[in-house]
Amino acid sequence: MQNTLKSLAQFSGLGLHSGQPVVMTLRPAPSDHGIWFRRIDVTDQDQLVEAKWDSVTASRLCTVIANRSGVSVSTIEHIMAALAGCAIHNAMIDIDGPEVPILDGSAAQFVEGILAAGIQALDAEVVAVRVLKAVEVRDGDAVARIEPSDMLEIDFKIDFTDAAIGRQQKTLNMSNGAFVRELSDSRTFCRNSDVIAMRERGLALGGTLENAVVFDGDQVLTPGGLRHADEPVRHKMLDALGDLSLAGGPLLGRYTGIRAGHALTNRLLRALFATPGAWAYQECGQLTGRKLPGVGVHQGDLPARV
Asked: CATH code at 169?
């Protein structure tokens, strides 16, 4: 069944790139509504922005969506991953600024808030996007691929010259509470040299050692170190789930990312929907529905540190 929230979930904090304070409120929505953002600070243009693959605009550092009036919301990947990972299919998200709060750099606090608000089943079946044949896009040595599978699987590989990161790979079946247990508390990461370069360009103004894992060669500069030995690749998988959730419904397919980022994953979705015979909508019955991300998730799935 489709789900929404039982009550409101509110979050406040700084935008990672803007450094501006923002308040965001998740509200219940009816079946077949989908996920929409409402820019309540905008009064002279269309406030509504749909969280869908064809609303994504060009951005290298985060996922940005915009409507036809040019009203946008950026850095949506973590809240979208949390919604998908908790099996929330319908929500209206009120936000009083152009960027989702970064909080601790992961999706854990979003998940905690969603589960505290409660999950409400609706009287409508989930319609998934089933992948019927493989589609792949490339950008140099970066690859994003989607191929048929009975459930959503994510396989990700990263390779950094920094000794503290190096080569990492992880594969997960995303059924049930896997996202919440395995990925939700993994934080965004960057190299110290990148932080310096971004701030010189007026970016990452809200970034601190409290909301990102910062690496410098073989050192982890963030106090407390890593939450997982392979936290960087886990965070890339978190981002991938958030970006893939923009398909307009849960994906039934196996995603492979090799050095992939937000832009390449969106290119993959565009290629998938542009390829005849590569996908089909499927109404999920009881058997298939059990395989979707977030189905059956509960408070006990939350990582102990949240």
From this structure: 3.30.1700.10
